[in-house]
Design a protein that fits this description.
Its main location: membrane. The protein is an alpha+beta fold. The chain contains seven helices and eleven strands. It has one domain. 22% of the residues lie in helices and 33% in strands.
Length: 278
């Protein structure tokens, strides 16, 4: 079910052809590998461990700020769906979502925005040049790669670009037009009693910004990589931009279970999915 269309997710897709993550995390970085089956990804590890005899050539990781996405709010969404998404963001910073849930009682709708958004990316032509000019081969005997090579429905993908953020903001509403106040002192009291580097900033009565010290990846771009099973020679396939979320029957938190959150994503269009699980 395609629940709503959002400026921020459209920007992520249209500007960067990126696949947004359901749970932001730091391990998703350029030059890392994914195994993709039925459009569903599994994290494998770093590209250098895929190369026979090791990969000792430095590939520059470029960075740039992303003004088009920074601080752009999503549209207002239903609280039950929004809390499911919020819970994953909070968990990514190592915080119990229940503590935040208690501070937003009376909320029926919410919206989000990412701040301090940075794009990290490699020059794929540089990587291709390094591989060809140095006659670098993949390791087809790696037990993980060997299985992928034997299954046509399984793809090997290289992450080339990511979008990261160190903070996000939450805005709450009683309805489409009326703001709902956030009990910010309650969140501050919780943070004061746990071991965390997460801080919060009051933006208004109904908006709070969560700020961490570790950039978390919330969207990525990847390209299919092939390894000849005999020679180990690398070749490239298609850019993969239709990866979808792995769904399960579990809920995000105890609070989520109490309010019976449906397992629906903000945007569940399989052609252009919003949130991806690893």
């Amino acid at each position: 079910m395609r629940i709503c269309k959002n400026d921020i997710t459209d920007q992520i897709r249209d500007l960067f052809d990126a696949n947004p993550l359901r749970i932001p995390e730091a391990r998703i970085q350029p030059m890392c590998m994914l195994e993709i089956q039925n459009h569903k990804p599994k994290y494998l590890g770093e590209f250098r461990f895929l190369v026979k005899d090791g990969f000792n050539h430095p590939i520059e990781i470029n960075t740039s700020t992303v003004a088009q996405v920074s601080n752009v709010k999503t549209k207002k969404i239903d609280f039950k769906i929004g809390f499911d998404i919020l819970g994953n963001f909070i968990k990514a910073f190592g915080i119990d979502p229940a503590a935040v849930g208690a501070s937003i009682k009376g909320t029926s709708k919410m919206s989000f925005s990412f701040g301090n958004v940075v794009r990290k990316y490699i020059d794929t032509l540089e990587l291709g040049h390094v591989l060809v000019s140095n006659d670098i081969k993949g390791d087809p005997d790696n037990m993980f790669i060997q299985e992928i090579s034997e299954k046509k429905e399984v793809k090997l993908a290289l992450i080339t670009d990511i979008l990261t953020s160190t903070d996000f903001s939450l805005s709450t509403y009683k309805d489409n037009t009326t703001e709902a106040e956030i009990n910010i002192p309650l969140i501050q009291e919780y943070l004061a009693n746990v071991d965390t580097n997460l801080t919060i900033e009051k933006m208004s009565e109904n908006e709070v910004k969560f700020k961490g010290d570790t950039p978390l990846t919330y969207a990525f771009t990847c390209v299919e990589i092939n390894i000849d099973p005999v020679t180990g020679k690398f070749s490239r396939g298609q850019w993969l931009d239709n990866i979808r979320s792995v769904k399960d029957s579990s809920t995000t938190t105890a609070v989520a279970e109490q309010i019976e959150i449906p397992k629906l994503l903000l945007d569940d269009n399989q052609a252009n999915p919003l949130l991806i699980d690893f």
